[in-house]
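A.,

Following up on our hallway conversation. Structure tokens first:
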């Protein structure tokens, strides 16, 4: 796989160096994820950083690699997942996952589900999927990450896995509503066909759909689905360990605040990407740290 020459078969770094390398990658990404993970104890934080680095790696393959090479790159990662569980990983990120996989009993199937989601993006540009396909996509690219995460957080209970399912969907739908223009530039349109049809949008061309006057109504309907998932996550979280689920609650607060901001703005200009200020993120982190 691309990156193997840099990250793979060379000198094997010790565990401390491996953790530091992964930490720097996560910090450099500038993601909201980083803020929420600061609530975790060091060992669990390192585990989440490794999971995040894996997700970024396969996402980059699906988004940025030449189209002809994407399937092979993701297939190589399926082999690497098997190698992690067999105790013989080669890639740097795979090596960083060995300890968390063992320590937190991470499920192999969740890693494979994430790759399956990336394959949906890599095989062809997704354009106006039906609601069932969109839900499957969200389950794979976000819900599966949630299932890994709750193990690392320290609450692998059925209620925590319900949080993973619904909060993952809420976060991914929020991402879709935030990134309409960026996705359109990649030739992708994740807005579901049933909602587009509801407002008389028969087109599947991303650029034309984003210029359609009914776009705000479509986005509001999809936002309603996301809000339902946020509410379901909040209800399921009441049955979980409050301390363990602080990072999940923080991510939920981040993304719900973003969705609220988009609803206020009304998707008047899809090219305007909503984000939270550093101060607002810090306030939300502190709020959940003190709960």
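Then the amino acids I'd put at each of the 291 positions:
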């Amino acid at each position: 796989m691309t990156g193997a020459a840099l990250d793979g078969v060379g000198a094997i770094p010790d565990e401390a160096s491996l953790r530091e390398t992964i930490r720097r990658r996560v910090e450099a990404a500038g993601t909201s994820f980083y803020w929420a993970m600061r609530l975790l104890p060091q060992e669990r934080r390192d585990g989440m950083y490794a999971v995040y680095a894996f997700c970024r790696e396969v996402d980059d393959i699906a988004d940025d690699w030449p189209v002809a090479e994407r399937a092979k790159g993701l297939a190589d990662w399926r082999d690497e997942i098997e190698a992690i569980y067999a105790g013989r990983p080669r890639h740097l990120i795979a090596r960083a996952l060995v300890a968390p996989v063992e320590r937190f009993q991470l499920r192999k199937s969740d890693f494979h589900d994430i790759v399956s989601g990336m394959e949906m993006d890599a095989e062809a540009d997704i354009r106006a999927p039906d609601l069932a396909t969109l839900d499957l996509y969200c389950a794979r690219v976000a819900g599966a990450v949630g299932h890994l995460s709750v193990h690392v957080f320290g609450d692998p209970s059925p209620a925590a896995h319900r949080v993973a399912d619904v909060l993952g969907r809420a976060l991914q739908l929020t991402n879709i509503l935030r990134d309409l223009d960026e996705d359109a530039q990649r030739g992708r349109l994740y807005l579901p066909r049933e909602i587009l049809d509801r407002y008389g949008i028969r087109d599947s061309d991303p650029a034309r759909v984003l210029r359609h006057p009914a776009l705000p109504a479509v986005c509001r309907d999809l936002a309603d689905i996301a809000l339902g998932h946020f509410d379901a996550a909040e209800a399921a979280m009441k049955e979980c360990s409050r301390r363990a689920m602080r990072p999940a609650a923080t991510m939920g607060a981040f993304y719900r605040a973003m969705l609220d901001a988009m609803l206020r703005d009304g998707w008047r200009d899809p090219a305007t990407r909503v984000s939270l200020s550093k101060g607002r993120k810090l306030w939300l982190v502190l709020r959940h740290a003190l709960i």
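The radius of gyration is 19 Å. Curious whether your intuition agrees with the design.

B.
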